[in-house]
Amino acid sequence: CLSYCFITLYNAFEGKEIEVIKDLTFSYSHFTIYLVIHSIWGMSMNEKYERQMKKGVLDMLVLKLLESEPKYGYQIIQEMKEKSGEIFLLKDGTLYPVLYRLEEDGLVVSKWREPIGRQVPRKYYQITASGKQTLGQIQARWKQISDGIKKIMEE
């Protein structure tokens, strides 16, 4: 028997076929674990790496968006979506932990604003002087990192 064989399985969780290469030396339980993990995460390796890359720059991007004026959460989400050409499609559950962390670190402050007319009260976030200074440092370091990545990728 060959050491590898190509098989197609039906993934009941997602309702579609999954193509995998399975090492026949693995036990059935290892193979089952792989399928369960794949079904739970439901994303390709490219999506996984893309998510990790995006997570690494969210603090910098949020600070940059707050640099011009105070903004509320939904406004940040929409502006990030528009300015990134829909590369960054954030959800509340992603943005608010970033905002809370930045606030805890003293890089932003928040303030509730009274509604005007039929608006609802909104919590606005504003970058602090320390946040502006930190943003400058992060941007400088990001340029160094980007330049380093470019050098490696262009080899």
Give an overview in words.
- This protein is an alpha+beta fold.
- Helix content is 54%, strand content 19%.
- The strands form 2 sheets. Strands 3-5-4 form a 3-stranded antiparallel sheet.
- Strand 1 and strand 2 (16-23) form a beta hairpin.
- Helix 3 (58-66) crosses helix 5.
- The two termini are 41 Å apart.
Topology at a glance:
Blueprint: E1 4-11, E2 16-23, H1 28-41, H2 45-55, H3 58-66, E3 71-72, H4 73-83, H5 92-104, E4 108-113, E5 122-127, H6 129-153
Antiparallel strand pairs: 1-2, 3-5, 4-5
Helix pairs in contact: 3-5
Quick synopsis:
The chain is of the alpha+beta class and 155 residues long. The chain is built from six helices and five strands. It has helices at 28-41, 45-55, 58-66, 73-83, 92-104, 129-153, and strands at 4-11, 16-23, 71-72, 108-113, 122-127.
Q: What is the count of β-strands? A: 5
Number of helices: 6
Biggest sheet, in brief? 3 strands, antiparallel
In whole angstroms, the N-to-C terminal distance is: 41 Å
- How helical, in percent, are the residues? 40-55%
Low-confidence stretches: 1-41
Strand content: 15-25%
Describe the strand arrangement of the main beta sheet, using strand numbers: 3-5-4
Structural class category? alpha+beta
